[in-house]
Amino acid sequence: MNVRNNHHSGVGVELHNLNKNYEKNRAIDTLNLKIHPGELMSLLGPSGCGKTTTLKMIAGLIRQDSGNIFIDGFDVRDTPVHKRGLGLVSQNYALFPHMTILENVSFGLKMKGLKASVVLQKSLDMLKVVQLFELKDRYPSQLSGGQQQRVALARCFVVEPKVMLLDEPLGALDKKLRETMQIELKMFQRQFGITTILVTHDQEEALMMSDRIAVMNKGKLEQVGSPQEIYEHPLNRFVAEFIGVSNFITSKIVDIEERYITVEIEGQLRIKVLNNYNLLTFTLGQSVTVSIRPEKINIHQENSSAQITLEAILDEVMYVGSSIYYYFITAKGTKLITYQQNTSAQTFMLNKGVHIALSWEPDSMCLLVD
Ligand SMILES: Nc1ncnc2c1ncn2[C@@H]1O[C@H](COP(=O)(O)OP(=O)(O)O)[C@@H](O)[C@H]1O
Ligand SMILES: [Mg+2]
Fold first, then answer.
1. Ligand nearest, relative to CA of residue 92
2. Helix or strand holding residue 366 (H, E)
């Protein structure tokens, strides 16, 4: 990738008590979020949770009912769209139909009043980045949806905005190209240090690309944190279910210490779980949900020396190439899925119906509230 060496650090964006109703429907509910300069923050959540609305408010395309938006420390309430220093790629990337791809990409630079030779060089460089150099003389109608989307990205990148707002920018691309573009986009963003807010409903994309993720649900923030925090320490059941796959086990609290909670699973197994992450308060005898990721569970055919073991019967086996998914049922009817890496040359798979012991490290478990 051809990137010049003129690092400019992005600016911070701060959302303060934002609210937005569409008629009687609450689209955004008291949203507070700080995006640091140069950071890539993803807004992740199911369709209709308010991601696009949030982005449009930051862009100035719609106005919040109440609350404030600060860009680089300034309240932009009365700043029109084109004066906010933003690059926006929306879901319906409207290209200029009567301009070639090169003209589309050059447009913003020409508007900035740069020298023609500079405009041309920067535009051609950017077209190489998005792998559209060969198509530079075509018109938008002569490109596929995915190619048009890349033109929209190029048009945004080339002016080196202070903040990029990207609304599902890779949604229309097929899997392979999407993965390539995810890496390119991330490299580009990091090298230029452009503060970026990426809207996506794709949790893998969010995990891969983000410095931090803001998980949204029904117009509210559920959790904000690094990909690892969000994945390993979900605060509640919504986040644990939305990001990746989790096993949920109902359990009872049988002991409470300062930083540890002991839960009893299936009336037999007692596990001491660290409770320093979400600082929830519990009472003795309370029923809680614990979660455990499929890849954190080990399976044992023979007697195991592991501290925690739970007996289960293998109910279903799924071969997915890089790993094997096993679906177990415990004596009490709890269903548990585990992922085992397909590491050996001779693929080994357990047979349905086999009795097995499952184990995991206590610290792999999370205590959740619903
Ligand atoms: N122009 C509009 N008029 C009325 N309701 C809207 C409008 N735009 C969005 N909504 C509603 O606001 C909520 C949030 O929408 P949106 O921000 O587009 O969600 P997302 O981008 O997360 O899918 C949804 O319930 C949606 O139906
Ligand atoms: Mg949307």
1. 2
2. strand 366-368
